């Protein structure tokens, strides 16, 4: 009874990651019949205040019952009106993707895009400044960890620029960094920082969360978007329990609570240091094997995921199969990087030093064949 079988193999897929044993225990409980009343709201509030620390905010945080993309769409639809100008700062698939999403919503999208092996630099900031002056965007978007590229964008200066130049709203995708790297929503002047359960928080892919600044709340009320992914139904819903939208997802919220309590016990600083150490071991170990990192020399590599070039003489499908045969599961990449780049997701439970050494040994073995 209740025996959780951790994955026997070496999972280094960049999401969904292997779930935390405590999350497995939380999921194996039966929460039915739904105890809607105060109990669920207490759990919700506890997760909310824990997530405020993870996201670096004193502002509101809400939980979405659906994976990361739910809050990406929900934030944009809830903050934007047709015809608004959106400035997307992209250094990869997700960063550029925000511009496509804005266009799909009938907005005018201005894209400041850098090559996919780069992170935001001084010259990017100059381009952003020019674009803000020329186009006066209502909203700016950026991605913290660009998962397909294995990079981590510094956002402090971009956030300062948003504030200094008076861009009304700033939305940050931190789906692949929240809980694995420091996120500073308030210090970055970010109105909405978006996260998901299946990356650094080692939960199943069924929950998401977002910070909502006071200014963003005002805008949400003004835009008044009301779809299933809307932010608006959560307005005061916790405080006014009778108005809480949708069926309480006990399992999803209890899983997040279990994961966040494990993070708190380890200490957030220690969690971040563990991710950094495993990422460094991955990069150094891979280089020692003759592999090449995908990010450029002057780009910031992510502590949660490492992107490497598929080694010469190996096609991606064969490389993946050879590793999988030996129990090592890595991810491919997306968009223009598909087939060229493979990724080791060392986030959450997978930020494990010993497992990383085993993974490197498997790669060494396959390369020596
Ligand atoms: C995984 C990911 C998403 C999407 O999250 P899902 O849980 O797959 O919906 C969005 N942005 C980034 C940067 C991601 O890594």
TrEMBL record:
The keyword Ribonucleoprotein does not apply. Keywords: Aminotransferase, Pyridoxal phosphate, Transferase. One of its GO terms (biological process) is glycine biosynthetic process, by transamination of glyoxylate. The modification N6-(pyridoxal phosphate)lysine is found at residue 199. Its cofactor is pyridoxal 5'-phosphate. InterPro entries: Aminotrans_V_dom (IPR000192), PyrdxlP-dep_Trfase (IPR015424), PyrdxlP-dep_Trfase_major (IPR015421), PyrdxlP-dep_Trfase_small (IPR015422), SP_NH2Trfase/AEP_transaminase (IPR024169). One of its GO terms (molecular function) is alanine-glyoxylate transaminase activity. Substrate binds at residue 343. Residues 35-330 form the Aminotransferase class V domain. Belongs to the class-V pyridoxal-phosphate-dependent aminotransferase family. This is Alanine--glyoxylate aminotransferase family protein. It comes from Mailhella massiliensis. The lineage of its organism: Bacteria, Pseudomonadati, Thermodesulfobacteriota, Desulfovibrionia, Desulfovibrionales.
